[in-house]
Specification:
The chain is mainly alpha-helical and 482 residues long. The protein is built from 22 helices and 2 strands. The chain has a domain of 163 residues. A two-stranded antiparallel ribbon has the order 1-2. A hairpin with a 2-residue loop joins β1 and β2. The longest helix has 31 residues. The relative contact order is 0.11.
């Protein structure tokens, strides 16, 4: 009964993804890639057809409960990851289902892990589809909001709560639909602005659009095997600036259009910027063998790319000294701000966890004292503290379990993945970062990962992007009970 209620809405989302495929068709036609245009058109029609039949066959639910909101988010992301494989498979760009699903999941979850050895060898149509999956996935809450919330009534609140990349959805208006539209305007506006700045450098219009899509979504897919290292220092600094913007709250950006002083009053933004500055300084001091300007730029670029979970690279941090590699893996557990397109734990949660730990230490010294957990000047309710602690506990448990399973799968397949490769691949996938260390570092890719390992990492990408609960709840008996 629950699945029948949700299939109408899932069909609407799948149809929207099919319609988006025509952007890749148009790109292929512009570049006279006739075969790719034909096959991507077939993929789009299949996707739209399935979505429309599902949408039309099942009745629209009048309202959504909280558990149904979580269920539709998890099922919708899995559905679009399945249908998103069709352009790769039908054009022959990726030859098997496992690799195609991995690439698609990495796109929609904005992870940026790839099985494609050389993106420059791909057609323009496939490259723009690859970038578009990240741009759509980057603001998944807004995609689902505009496509689905008008159909839901008050149930839209539950959908937004399930999808929001943070502890709670941030309303700009009393209506979530209006909030979604405003955030989309900010998202699209910043994307267009980045395109303008990039074409003033050494990127073509196509490269600028593709990299804008994957920067503002904190995704990291590129058009060259050298990632952003293939472009000038000017382009790299522009990408750094927009990665920082994409890793901050889009609701905060919207409010700053009226009052820029809100930036200075936001505690999470201060923590976010502080982490970026400190990490950049440590990496710059620990780097060796390059000119000062290049050393500073590579340090800042790497820190921003990892913290915001974008995953671009201008330097092979897998070849750095062990201390810096440990720092890079640690930064994978930070993430962008709540309300950004970034993944991972989020500075807000790290701040709450630190505040709660400090309160507990004070309570040990003063057993009769009453201590309130604070983040900046804000008092955090106990239920939020417990929710954050539960999230972090689950996050670390999934990371450790995932690392063990990945190592087992790699050993069973006879693949040469050491503990560093296994742990960094899992941390990177769960945090939606992209590159890891050693065998999955910036100078390599995930093509050599065994099939079971790719399915595991794909699942971890979805779990991390949807902040654990919507995916885990799909496997609980309580969700499917009437």
């Amino acid at each position: 009964m629950l699945l029948r209620r949700l299939l109408h809405l899932i069909g609407a989302v799948v149809s929207a993804i099919g319609a988006a495929m025509f952007a890749a068709v148009i790109t292929s036609l512009i570049y006279r890639e006739w075969d790719e245009a034909a096959w991507i058109s077939v993929a789009a029609l299949i996707t739209i057809g399935f979505g429309y039949l599902t949408w039309n066959h099942y009745e629209r639910p009048r309202d959504l409960s909280r558990k149904e909101g979580f269920a539709i988010v998890g099922l919708s992301w899995f559905a679009i990851s399945v249908f998103g494989t069709l352009p790769y498979l039908l054009t022959g760009s990726i030859g098997n289902v496992t690799d195609a699903f991995f690439e698609t999941a990495a796109g929609f979850t904005t992870t940026g892990a790839s099985v494609i050895p050389d993106p420059g060898a791909m057609s323009h149509g496939i490259l723009i589809w690859r970038a578009l999956t990240q741009w759509i996935g980057g603001m998944g809450i807004i995609v689902l909001s505009i496509a689905v919330l008008p159909l839901l009534g008050s149930g839209g609140v539950e959908l937004a709560r399930a999808e929001s990349p943070g502890p709670k959805p941030d309303r700009l208006t009393p209506r979530f639909r209006e909030t979604a539209k405003r955030l989309w305007w900010v998202y699209a506006g910043l994307s267009a602005l980045q395109v303008l700045f990039l074409i003033l450098g050494d990127m073509t219009l196509f490269e600028a659009i593709a990299h804008s899509f994957t920067t503002m979504s904190t995704g990291g897919f590129g058009t060259d095997v050298r990632s952003i290292g293939a472009f000038s220092a000017y382009s790299q600094w522009i990408v750094i600036i927009f990665m920082v913007l994409a890793g901050a709250s889009f609701a905060l950006h919207f409010r700053a259009l009226r009052d820029p002083r809100v930036y200075g009053r936001n505690t999470e933004l201060k923590l976010y910027v502080g982490i970026l500055v400190v990490a950049s300084a440590i990496i710059a001091i620990g780097s060796r063998g390059s000119a000062a300007a290049d050393m500073i730029r590579d340090a800042v670029f790497t820190a921003v790319s990892i913290v915001t979970t974008t995953g671009y690279a201008t330097a092979d941090f897998g070849a750095w000294v062990p201390a810096l590699q440990v720092l890079v893996v640690g930064l994978m557990f930070v993430g962008g701000m709540s309300g950004s397109t970034g993944g991972s734990v989020k500075p807000y949660r790290l701040g709450v966890l630190s505040g709660a730990a400090l309160s507990d230490l004070r309570r040990v010294i003063h057993p009769r004292g009453i201590f309130v957990t604070r983040f900046g000047k804000e008092a955090i309710p106990q239920d939020i503290v417990e929710s954050v602690q539960t999230f972090f506990l689950l996050y670390m448990f999934i990371f450790m379990t995932g690392t063990m399973l990945f190592a087992v799968f790699a050993q069973a397949a006879g693949a040469g993945f050491d503990l560093v490769s296994s742990a960094s691949a899992v941390a990177s996938s769960l945090g939606n970062v992209g590159p890891g260390l050693s065998s999955v570092g910036p100078s390599s890719n995930y093509l050599a990962v065994p099939a079971l390992g790719k399915w595991l990492l794909s699942l971890l990408m979805l779990v991390g992007r949807l902040e654990i609960f919507p995916i885990l709840l799909l496997f609980t008996r309580e969700l499917w009970r009437r």
